[in-house]
Design brief:
single chain; alpha/beta; 7-stranded mixed beta sheet; 18 strands
Length: about 425
């Protein structure tokens, strides 16, 4: 059996219990199985409280943004309860901290639903959110993700039907890529574009595809495509081919680490094209190793709020570093707004009538218009937030270090 030993250590430090299935009886001893890593709340739920589950990774690949997201949710719940709760009841955040594998998130969602959660906020990764979505849709429990951008999170590709219990408080990959392509053509006057993307990563692929399709529609010429594999660090062969093509813009829909390496290597090769990226670039370490060779812009899922930043730093003594915490906060506010709109709940509404209450909450969230920390939140028929993206410019700050400054808003406000 494949074990992730770090789960035991993390559980001990965090004071949580690590739950996983027991050993199979008999069978092939050579067969490997991955046990879900879930750190469940260490205390029993308080009777009469409104239970809201937070399912975010705090271990492995997505842990940093997962913890930022969780902190945002914590801050929202603390402020709601400090203001008196919801119709006299306390909102209780039940934390299910997971690993960064889809099995972890799916198992956590099942546990949260069985434990009586009215709804779930999470996750930060589209891969994990889609695993949660399968559970909530089957069980009739509302899910609100903060920064999961995969277009098919809120609908089922095989059937084309919406996942009616799944919502997100951010834009999708398709919206982001299309808006960046329009910006390249209409504002930057680009007529030739190159797209360098990670071929095996769904986020990178879908963002690349939406950019390519919209750029061709608006510029009348399809971008030239180049790709790389996961963990690749030498991008010079692709960049040399891009230099021969001589594009006006280079779109790199990958992580900030990939963009940083690509930017430094592009500078060494003498490329001068404008660089564009998606929300995966959002990190203070972006271009810390040098580059980009010219101007650089990337899409962000929110416009920073100075007031929220102040409150967050006062509690957690750290910067938000992007939109994860802000939108984690707003995901909770959406659920809270739904609970307020359905009115005071009797005890039986949280017990034997829980399924009916969950359905009422879903309908209330779908119809909600919430003034969140990131602006007005309202959903379209798919459960996607009706809004565009912020455009950040990468500029040189103090001591020559690159900093990202929001320059404008693209698309619907």
């Amino acid at each position: 059996m494949v074990l992730r030993a770090f789960a035991v250590a993390v559980a001990a430090v965090a004071g949580f219990a690590c739950l996983s299935p027991g050993e199979p009886d008999g069978g092939d001893a050579s067969a490997e199985r991955v046990d879900p890593v879930v750190l469940v709340p260490g205390d029993a739920p308080t009777p009469g409280d409104l239970r809201l589950a937070a399912v975010f990774p705090t271990v492995d690949r997505y842990a940093v943004s997962g913890l930022q997201s969780l902190n945002g949710a914590r801050l929202a719940v603390d402020e709601i309860n400090h203001a008196g709760g919801i119709h006299g009841r306390r909102l209780e955040l039940r934390e299910y901290r997971t690993g960064s594998y889809f099995v972890d998130a799916q198992h956590a969602a099942a546990l949260a639903i069985d434990d009586g959660a009215l709804g779930i906020v999470g996750s930060n990764s589209s891969e994990l959110s889609m695993a949660i979505a399968e559970k909530v849709e089957a069980r009739g429990v509302v899910q609100v993700s903060n920064v999961s951008t995969a277009q098919d999170l809120t609908w089922v590709p095989e059937t084309g039907q919406n996942r009616e219990f799944v919502f997100r408080v951010c834009s999708s990959d398709v919206v982001m890529g299309a808006l960046l392509a329009e910006y390249a053509v209409e504002d930057l006057r680009a007529r030739r574009a190159a797209v360098l993307y990670e071929v095996g990563r769904e986020y990178s692929n879908k963002l690349a595809r939406s950019f390519i399709e919209r750029f061709e529609e608006t510029a009348g010429q399809a971008p030239r495509e180049f790709f790389y594999l996961a963990l690749e660090t030498d991008f010079r062969p692709q960049l040399e081919l891009i230099a021969e093509y001589d594009p006006d813009v280079i779109f790199v829909p990958g992580s900030f680490t990939d963009a940083t390496l690509i930017g430094a290597q592009a500078t060494d090769l003498g490329l001068t094209a404008t660089f564009l990226g998606g929300d995966g670039w959002s990190n203070p370490l972006l271009f810390g190793r040098g580059g980009p060779p010219g101007e650089a812009f990337f899409a962000e899922l929110c416009s920073p709020s100075a007031e929220f930043e102040r409150r967050y730093q006062a509690v957690f003594a750290a910067a938000t570093q992007g939109c994860r915490a802000l939108l984690g906060y707003d995901a909770v506010q959406v659920v809270a707004a739904g609970l307020r709109s359905i009115g005071p709940l009797a005890d039986e509404a949280l017990e034997e009538e829980l399924d009916d209450t969950r359905r009422l909450l879903r309908d209330a969230v779908a119809a909600a218009e919430v003034e969140g920390a990131s602006g007005v939140i309202r959903f379209d028929a798919h459960g996607d937030r009706r809004q565009g993206v912020a455009l950040s410019a990468v500029e040189r700050g103090p001591a020559g270090r690159p900093i990202a400054l929001v320059r404008k808003w693209l698309g619907e406000p």
